[in-house]
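FORM 7B: Structural annotation worksheet

SECTION A. Query
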Amino acid sequence: MVWASLATAPVLGHSWGPNQQGYGEARPAAVYNGGDPTGMVTSIHWATWGGAEAVGEGTSTWVWPGTCVGCNRPTSGARIVAFHRGQCRGIPSYNAIEWFFPKYGETFNPHVYINSCTGEYVGLSGTMPRYPDATTKDGLAAIKVQAAGLSCRAAKQVIASVQVVRYLRRAGRFAVGRFRCGTEGDLTGQTLFECASGDRDVLFDVAA
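SECTION B. Predicted structure
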């Protein structure tokens, strides 16, 4: 019977913080962690639910590299995946959740997710390796170089392809090959730039 199948359908973990949406529900139309806009997916249309993993499409906020969260608006094309099916507080549930933007080169990584039963962030690292200084395409020194998902040589190649002079004192967004780059301009006498493509990310400062 229909009611029986609904009764046994897994839910999405359990609410683990204030002002949240979607947790503890089956096929939630929205998922919200209760914080900034990047922690929210709305207008979710689930293509699957009930198997080993559930996959849906919705709207969320993708932050253009080098810009502030509030400088961006929600956009369609967010893919949301619920997985690690098991139990949460004795109820059948998906105990992992992740969302990302395939149209911006992001891909599903089963090792990086939110534990939707406890709220633990799994697989995230708050540090990026530091690399030696490099030089931009327009000959300026890039200092405080950090990168994730790239070797030192690859990070230097990205920096060497970027022209930054026009953005030293004002905010800007631009693309270089597959990398999207941006900055908020001169905030402290130096201008922070970020270039990202999928899970590859480069940060560097240039004197304003």
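SECTION C. Observations
Confidence is low (pLDDT under 50) at residues 1-6. The longest helix spans residues 152-160.

SECTION D. Sign-off
Analyst initials: ____
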